[in-house]
Amino acid sequence: MSHATDQIKNVAIAGHGQTGKTTLFEHLLLAGGVIPRAETVESGKTASDASPEEVERKISIYAAMGHVDRNGTKINFFDTPGSSDFTGNVISSFRASELALLAVDGRSGVQIETVKLWRNLDGQDKPRGVFISKLDNDQADFARALADIKEKFKIEPAPVVLPMGTGGGFKGVIDVLHEKAYLAGGDAVEKECPIPDEFKDAVAAAREKLIEAAAEGDDALMERYIEQGSLSPEEMKTGLVKALAGNKYVPAFAGAALKNSGIIPLIDFIADAGPNPRSAKDAVLDGEGKEQDIPIDPDKPFSGLVIKTTYDQFSGKLSWIKVVTGKLAADSEAYNVSENKKERVGKLYSCQGKKLEEVRELFAGDVGIITKSATLKTNDTLAAADGGRSFAPLRLPEPVHSIAVNAVAKKDDDKLGEFLVRAAEEDKTFRYNFNGETKETVISGMGELQINIILDKIKTNQKIEVETHVPKVAYRETITKKSGAEYTHKKQTGGHGQYGKVVLEIAPLPRGENYQFINAIFGGAIPKNYIPGVEKGIVEGMAHGTMAQYPVVDVEVKIVDGKYHPVDSSELSFKLAARNAFRDAMRQASPTLLEPIMNLTVFVEEKYLGDVMSDLSGKRGKILGQDSAGGIAEIRAEVPQSELLRYSIDLRSITSGTGSFSVAFDHYAPISGRIADDVIKARESFKLQEADE
Q1: Longest dimension (CA), the chain
Q2: In this predicted model, what pLDDT tens digit does every residue of 357-409 receive, in sequence order?
Q3: Alpha-carbon torsion 206, 208, 213, 217, what sign?
Q4: Fewer CB within 10 Å: N-end or C-end of the chain?
Q5: How do residues 130-140 score in pLDDT, each as one tens digit?
Q6: For residues 281 and 98, is the Cβ–Cβ distance under 8 A?
Q7: Which parts of 47-113 are beta strand (E)?
């Protein structure tokens, strides 16, 4: 069954690992009548954790989608992974949703991934709520978790649901908005009951906070609230809808999913007050490549963004699409704006975890699946006709962990490449490329876990044995002073010979400017038609420096003089002369090695701060600054790439698996002394090995 835009809500459930997201998702489907019973993560039979690797490890690796119907409203829920290794699935789910629901463990409060996810949502100004989970645990405390959220994020959550007791005394929850209480259901769906007298004052206080939040949603409501001191139930609902869509308050929910508690009030709130797709926007690229917001609108011609690609052993390739405008019909034709060609759309599906459900059409705001499209890929834009603008691609973080790989059996190399390409298509935070400079196949991802799962899957399913090793670093060479050289290429064989003479001057450029060529020839010493040959020779000379044959950067090259022969000169002659002249000049210009320096941001609990900073100092890191809030420290540093090749493993060891980091290339910096000597020796060894092969 298809639903119109006004009947759709999209919610991404996210949070730190082990906060109960999959359990919550499972019990939402149970409460919605989608599944007959809720399974545990340990059983390996939940609706969302469907892959063998998820069942084996008992964690979510891929985002899953399911939906429930509440009073005619279709609510799409996304169950996302908690590990930072699989953050790409979280980001695609955020893109598809109008509301993010962050699960926060009632015992632990805000954790590192909670902080990172919150910052991501801040960057999008995305509405969000918090679900305080596992309140049946003895160490859980709803009020303490809310205080932790207030301290770390400088916001005051508005409780929409209150717990009745905690730990062993946990009985159920109270829906503040609808003024109903629900006893924990155990194996069954929770049952409504009267609000106990002991909680009525707490409910009244929470309801007053909700009315204040509702007044924030509309100027007229704020005036009425100031004048009358309250709002009617209908005004309250209207204000909450507007205020949440505008990200003006954070609703807080309470529950214990394993006890079937807090589920119905959550569904009811989203159905009544959750942001409607019409209140949200997506982003397209204008003619200059800048992002421009457009509303989600069912009345415009069809357009949609492919947010995700997966492969199913039974259904084949699945392209997940968020419909932004108009509607998409099954068995229709659309235009792939990204590929500039027509696309045949066959069957369309919605899904309930691992189960696909066929639909005839998807309206703006909805998310569905196109099957068996050979050419569709993540970030592609589909539209009703050509001439449309492309949607902005997913904003994904750069990979932080890389390894070099090769098949043990040479005959499997091509096959290995095919499956690494597919893995990179399924998860856009995973990269695969052949580095021609180091002659290595390098794969990169968000962490060791993500990469190991991909390689284990290839080994298990394709029977390919893979070797891994630390990748080589792409060093560079440059010069530190001016110099010059001349070189004459002269070769006489019968008939036409080869002749070309060039005189060069070279000088250092500021870091990052790479290369500049200046033609300062006057008086026709070298004819204009040979100048391109001179520049080609210089570029070839820069491809392999004189210290360790690494590429040369940040050099200005000026051709100042030369000589030619009317018969024997040619472009080739001047190319060879220029290449040798450049190398001679570089040897006299005090060459030095450059290493890549990375911008590193580390998130750790404050108790590990000293150990992490000490480790970074030992890695030749330069600390740029640090911030701490509520027990979570953020460290910013510049560190040589060579010191970070195994940092995901090092940080996990230092922080007992709780630390997290992001990394991006920043600049190249000189190295000398023993470090440079070691780099040169390793390069010589590599070149000898390459020659033997």
Answers
A1: 111
A2: 999 999 999 999 999 898 999 999 999 988 789 999 999 998 999 999 999 99
A3: positive
A4: C
A5: 999 999 999 99
A6: no
A7: 64-70, 73-79, 99-105
